[in-house]
Amino acid sequence: MKLTLWTYEGPPHVGAMRVATGMKGLHYVLHAPQGDTYADLLFTMIERRNARPPVSYTTFQARDLGSDTASLFKQTCRDAYERFKPEAIIVGASCTAELIQDDPGGLAASMGLPVPVIALDLPSYQRKENFGADETFFQIVKALAKPMERSAQVSCNILGPTGLGFRHRDDVTEITGLLTQMGVAVNVVAPMGARPSDIARMGAAHFNVLLYPETAEAAARHCERVLGQPFTKTVPIGVGATRAYIAEVARLAGVSAKVDESRLRLPWWSASVDSTYLTGKRVYLFGDATHVMAAARMARDEVGFEVVGMGCYNREFARPLRALAKEFGLEALITEDYLEVEAAIAELHPELILGTQMERHIGKRLGIPCAVISAPVHVQDFPARYSPQMGFEGANVMFDTWVHPLVMGLEEHLLHMFREDFEFHDEAGASHHGGQHVARVETPEAPVEATAGTAADTAAPEAGAAPSGEIIWLSDAEKELRKIPFFVRGKAKRNTEKFAAEKGLTRISIETLYEAKAHYAR
Amino acid sequence: MTDLPPPPARGCREAPVLKERGQREVFCGLTGIIWLHRKMQDAFFLVVGSRTCAHLLQSAAGVMIFAEPRFGTAILEEKDLAGLADANAELDREVARLLERRPDIRQLFLVGSCPSEVIKLDLDRAAERLNVVHAPHVRVLSYTGAGTDTTFTQGEDSCLAAMVPTLPETTARELLLVGSLPDVVEDQALALLAALGIGPVRCLPARRAGEMPGVGPDTVFALVQPFLGETHGALVKRGARHVAAPFPFGEEGTTRWLRAIADEFGVSPETFEAATAAPRARARKAVAAHAEELRGKSIFFLPDSQLELPLARFLTRECGMTAVEVGTPYLHRDILGPDLDLLAEGPVISEGQDVDLQLDRVRAARPDLTVCGLGLANPLEAEGLATKWAIELVFSPVHFYEQAGDLAALFARPLTRRRILKLEAAE
């Protein structure tokens, strides 16, 4: 038993729903109690889908448990087939139905339905959403895709995009465009947009592009084994990764790796002087392993940030993430407990978090800006505009997204230059963000902490290493601290207190403040 | 200002009910935790369930709540399913850790779920066991929010019913308001009752553990929510008496609800008039502002919160709408009798659900507005049917006079929006 307040992943049958909802002409008959239909709203509300997910639930109740839930399941299967006439059906159980052991696969197989019935065995008490999606897609491919003659033109399948995927819609468009430019035809994109009849012709492709290892690695490995299709190992997120991916595709397809890079703006945006202020900004990364690993390389190599910590919530990918973290001189945090992530962030006090919606909330509590790079998704992660993460446009999008939460370059310089100026004082916040302009309080007795600093320090008292309570800030030092711009003040305060604690000081003077600054200067 | 029509000659109390069994597109009772934990400020709700339960709470809450929430899920793992003895030991350990970390918690609800019910994990006994350890600082109670036993708002009923036997005995003649309301609305109700000279008035649930009301043979109770059938039964068992009335939605509902209580407490007509005239006029005016958008429009309720029948009564009588079908997960005829009397015969009254068949009826009727759950709203909008999310009716302050206009506005907004959006080519 484990106490969970917020979760990064849903149960495995939600992963199966993401596959079914991404596809067309497939229906999922789910043995599940009343109430499990809540999962529909993930797709209709968060993703704004204009149709119900293709899922029929048995929605059994206590009175059914006393009689015959197996015949209820068969009735639901029959009704679903009659009403929706799918090309194939997947059947399975949610966590409660797993306990009553009705064997949906066996029941459905015995019904003689005129379409393929694929049974899913998703262990709800051991595994989670990504596993559910990966396993479901694998079972569908295993059941329907058979070896066949290759297409005349060199072609590939794109594997991994699902319903409710983080920017999957736009990633597919971007990557399809790249492949087309290279002269590689796209045979099937799956699960998203594919029909069971499309899965059946996957064997015609020469190789597979694995976009999302979390949801399609098992299927890609199966295709490699059974259909003789190699698959790409590079996930094209970031400039370097996209170029490596292009080289990999060129090798697999036997085509030229020359592509049009004229729309790629990140390198110049990063090199131009306004971006100088990004240098060495301390970032913390958390999310699914694939997005975190790609973002870590981008953050270090393409934006010039300093990565101070990274982690993921999907244990299946802990090994490669740990290896990458080691390469960065860090230890990866592998956890599903957001309180552990919060503690790690509070401890490191980065200047920017690249995380999930969960870390966005953590950042808000701690007063640290955050950009979202990974699922779990939120309605915000389905923007109306084109907004991929992959390919060259993806790199452009990510540059903008990461820089947006920060104070703009020139503005940061101005804040440093005119620290105590009536307009450029730091309580005003970044000028391109919402919120009313706050006039500077002119009284010398102003509260010690600015809003950002206060939030950071009161929200996580237990996580901090600095024993603020035992150390006294002398009033001159306090005033001097206030002159430091808000986006670095938290760090300055913590460093100074840590420095004081190490030196055994109980009072912090201006001297201490600047000694600490010199001590920590790199 | 026009007066409301007289009660219909034939209401829906004796109307035939279409009963359906099939796929139900409703939340389970765990969802109630989202508003119950806001209401009871020193309570923690610990669901003993699966990852699905945790995911439901997170998804239904919509936005994640900033602070560390006062609800959570003890997720059952493989080893808990293997042996109940171990599961109980694990539960005790998790509770101890939780209470140690959250000394502000004074009430702990162990909430049963589908998996805990199926494996027959006895949470009543667990609560007794934990009470021995953690009382008096923390009181531990249990109830079920399992989807196998409860839909959506029934979770609150199940929770309050579990509290009733633990309430102290009293011989005082007191009015008890039953059902959780947002604090601001509860305060308005208490002010209205005070103006009628009725008091003391107690509330179930109380905002804090130390303020829980007593109950006894001289307790008179009024329900503020229509889904409290089990709680109603538990209070009657304790000797309390129910004041039957329409539910306090809209000006008419609020007035009739207050009148029933006023009659019980012998309030004079003059006092009643003096206390209610001004807010009644305000409520009518506020409703009228939105009723223009609603008048003559048809409405179809899919079963969701059990508020459907009183709301249909409000919308047909005070806003001039026509009800096509009023679906409810369960029909408590006793509790809803006064509302059914006021709802003119005509609409199909349905209980239970077969969602595909019901959606066929929606498509055939093409109502101007369909009240449904979040899973169905966008698909229906995409078919050109305006919708109102049922969940908002439960989460928003909609009771009593001062919210009557807001309640009408919730239904008018989707229609207004459709009218003002111009998405064709600009002229």
From TrEMBL, chain A:
<dbReference type="InterPro" id="IPR016209">
    <property type="entry name" value="Protochlorophyllide_Rdtase"/>
</dbReference>
<feature type="domain" description="Nitrogenase/oxidoreductase component 1">
    <location>
        <begin position="12"/>
        <end position="406"/>
    </location>
</feature>
<comment type="similarity">
    <text>Belongs to the ChlB/BchB/BchZ family.</text>
</comment>
<keyword id="KW-0547">Nucleotide-binding</keyword>
<feature type="binding site">
    <location>
        <position position="36"/>
    </location>
    <ligand>
        <name>[4Fe-4S] cluster</name>
    </ligand>
</feature>
<keyword id="KW-0479">Metal-binding</keyword>
<dbReference type="GO" id="GO:0005524">
    <property type="term" value="F:ATP binding"/>
</dbReference>
<keyword id="KW-0411">Iron-sulfur</keyword>
<dbReference type="InterPro" id="IPR042298">
    <property type="entry name" value="P-CP_red_C"/>
</dbReference>
<comment type="pathway">
    <text>Porphyrin-containing compound metabolism; bacteriochlorophyll biosynthesis (light-independent).</text>
</comment>
<dbReference type="Pfam" id="PF08369">
    <property type="entry name" value="PCP_red"/>
</dbReference>
<dbReference type="InterPro" id="IPR050152">
    <property type="entry name" value="ChlB/BchB/BchZ"/>
</dbReference>
<comment type="function">
    <text>Component of the dark-operative protochlorophyllide reductase (DPOR) that uses Mg-ATP and reduced ferredoxin to reduce ring D of protochlorophyllide (Pchlide) to form chlorophyllide a (Chlide). This reaction is light-independent. The NB-protein (BchN-BchB) is the catalytic component of the complex.</text>
</comment>
<dbReference type="InterPro" id="IPR013580">
    <property type="entry name" value="LI-POR_suB-like_C"/>
</dbReference>
<feature type="active site" description="Proton donor">
    <location>
        <position position="274"/>
    </location>
</feature>
<dbReference type="GO" id="GO:0046872">
    <property type="term" value="F:metal ion binding"/>
</dbReference>
<dbReference type="GO" id="GO:0016636">
    <property type="term" value="F:oxidoreductase activity, acting on the CH-CH group of donors, iron-sulfur protein as acceptor"/>
</dbReference>
<comment type="subunit">
    <text>Protochlorophyllide reductase is composed of three subunits; BchL, BchN and BchB. Forms a heterotetramer of two BchB and two BchN subunits.</text>
</comment>
<dbReference type="InterPro" id="IPR005969">
    <property type="entry name" value="Protochl_reductB"/>
</dbReference>
<dbReference type="Pfam" id="PF00148">
    <property type="entry name" value="Oxidored_nitro"/>
</dbReference>
<keyword id="KW-0408">Iron</keyword>
<dbReference type="GO" id="GO:0016730">
    <property type="term" value="F:oxidoreductase activity, acting on iron-sulfur proteins as donors"/>
</dbReference>
Automatic annotation (TrEMBL), chain B:
<dbReference type="GO" id="GO:0036070">
    <property type="term" value="P:light-independent bacteriochlorophyll biosynthetic process"/>
</dbReference>
<dbReference type="GO" id="GO:0005524">
    <property type="term" value="F:ATP binding"/>
</dbReference>
<dbReference type="InterPro" id="IPR005970">
    <property type="entry name" value="Protochl_reductN"/>
</dbReference>
<keyword id="KW-0560">Oxidoreductase</keyword>
<feature type="binding site">
    <location>
        <position position="53"/>
    </location>
    <ligand>
        <name>[4Fe-4S] cluster</name>
    </ligand>
</feature>
<keyword id="KW-0149">Chlorophyll biosynthesis</keyword>
<keyword id="KW-0479">Metal-binding</keyword>
<keyword id="KW-0408">Iron</keyword>
<dbReference type="GO" id="GO:0019685">
    <property type="term" value="P:photosynthesis, dark reaction"/>
</dbReference>
<keyword id="KW-0411">Iron-sulfur</keyword>
<dbReference type="InterPro" id="IPR050293">
    <property type="entry name" value="LIPOR_BchN/ChlN"/>
</dbReference>
<comment type="similarity">
    <text>Belongs to the BchN/ChlN family.</text>
</comment>
<dbReference type="GO" id="GO:0051539">
    <property type="term" value="F:4 iron, 4 sulfur cluster binding"/>
</dbReference>
<dbReference type="GO" id="GO:0016636">
    <property type="term" value="F:oxidoreductase activity, acting on the CH-CH group of donors, iron-sulfur protein as acceptor"/>
</dbReference>
<protein>
    <recommendedName>
        <fullName>Light-independent protochlorophyllide reductase subunit N</fullName>
        <ecNumber>1.3.7.7</ecNumber>
    </recommendedName>
</protein>
<keyword id="KW-0547">Nucleotide-binding</keyword>
<dbReference type="InterPro" id="IPR000510">
    <property type="entry name" value="Nase/OxRdtase_comp1"/>
</dbReference>
<keyword id="KW-0004">4Fe-4S</keyword>
<comment type="subunit">
    <text>Protochlorophyllide reductase is composed of three subunits; BchL, BchN and BchB. Forms a heterotetramer of two BchB and two BchN subunits.</text>
</comment>
<feature type="domain" description="Nitrogenase/oxidoreductase component 1">
    <location>
        <begin position="28"/>
        <end position="402"/>
    </location>
</feature>
<dbReference type="Pfam" id="PF00148">
    <property type="entry name" value="Oxidored_nitro"/>
</dbReference>
<keyword id="KW-0602">Photosynthesis</keyword>
